[in-house]
Amino acid sequence: MVALDRLKILVIEAQPTMRAQLRTMLSSIGMEEVQFAVSAGMAVRRLREARYDLILCEYNLGEGQDGQHLLEDLRNHEIIPLDTLFVMITGERNYERVVSTAELSPNDYILKPLAAEALRVRLMRALEKRDALLPAWRLMAIGDILGAIAYCDEAQDRYPLYLIDFLRLRAELHTAAGQTDEAIAIYHEILSAKAIPWAQLGLARALYLKKAYAEAEEILDGLINEHERFIAAYDLLAKLKEESGDALGARTVLKTATLRSPHRVSRLRQLGELSLSTGDPEAAEEVMGEVVRKGKYSDFRDPEDHVRLVQAQIALNKVDAAATTITDLDRSMGGQPKAELCKALSSALLHAHTGDTTRAQQALLAAAHAAPSASKLSVGIKQELIKACFDQDMGDAGKELVMDILRTSADERTVETTREVMKSIGLEALSREIEQRVQEEVKALISVGAEKAHAGDYDGAVAEMMNAARRMPGNPHVLFNAALALLRHIEHRGWNEAFARQARALIDRARKLAPTSTRLAAITEFMHGLIKRYGIRPERIAESADKAAMFRNTARR
């Protein structure tokens, strides 16, 4: 276990007096390496710049965000690793509100008023638990999901105090490995002993992945009825309803969730988009206006929010308000490629609404040309561009955008929604034609890589498939095959950590796009076999990384 005096600590606390008290208290128990952040935004910036062993975070952070929201942002955006301890400092009232239902729980909650010795004891306990789970996390980091499962299975007998934690991690790992039935069995095992909210949610999520929507919905309805503040259950229920075609039902669920937890920007954004798609621009304007306002305090703001707000204002014929929103977008985020594209699309929509066809087409052309190169442009905004292009008789640009979506974001849901967009504007036949062209492209790219591998040209196979993955970064079929080419190279030419790291990244992307793919279990097993074959351990990877860092630092001097 790492000694307390060797921990690198970040304290997130807005109140100067409390910061001073915490500094004194931490110093009294030998913890001297302490940095401070006075807001969530400052904390995110510090955590992006450096790694910390321990985060002590006040629950009340101001600016419409609390410590629980910050933790979710840090985990969901992968800003902190699993072995960074996150400890929440909170009053009893807030503790009772969140501790029993938070899906992403802190490593511990410490109630005010604080005492130095109590803090020391709680931190030591958190470190002991972290050390028990650490080998599994390290195996996960090198892509050995099955190895991590095996460790959890063995360690739960050695560390009976953390049995429930190992069972939870095992269930999550089985889901990640495409072994949904095994995950369901573990959740049932947990729930047979006690009705734990996160286990009920995990079971519902596994059933959702199997498209057992009725069973999942029944669990989620019961969970929400019993724990009305378990917001993650609302989110999954809304996603389930939307995917099964009940957009109005999804919107109703999210409206209730935002009443319970009004500050989560991603949830408000989804509610605004659903309000637009279900024909309620007044509600959409209100919600997206709030999203834009809150975004000004967030490191995760998105210029697409302005586009949605403009759409709502145009639907309400608020031309001046829409123009003001576009100006605000340009002033607050102008210069970024994605922001420039969103400004062009918003301007095109406004010009089309006011009947200025020439300016609308000019703006659309600029947006359509920029779309393929804009970083992380959502499928939804690309689909809005498609509709606008066809509305303005710019069919060639519209077709290119459909091709771009199907090349770069070809998960099942995206293909379905793009097909629906084309059908809504009377172009279903064109949609099928474009889908067929892209499918032929995919087959051609994969076949070239497969032929090279079959001929023993593993370097050539990797080059072909990595090029295919760059061209089609959201196509799960291409991603799986690119990862397979890298693993085949390792199988025949020996361990290559750079290739292994690339394969892990590709598998992670494919898993997010196609979590129920039948290929997931097979490629996870293949990766595990190679790691065992070459005796790869997390410590070996860490040592290699340290040596590489030392070499780079020496070279800079």
TrEMBL record:
Q: What SUPFAM superfamilies does its record include?
A: CheY-like, TPR-like
In what residue span(s) does the Response regulatory domain sit? 8-127
Matching entries from Pfam families are given as: Response_reg, TPR_19
* Single Gene Ontology BP annotation: phosphorelay signal transduction system
InterPro entries recorded for this chain? CheY-like_superfamily, Sig_transdc_resp-reg_receiver, ST_Response_Regulator, TPR-like_helical_dom_sf
Question: Which protein is depicted?
Answer: Response regulator
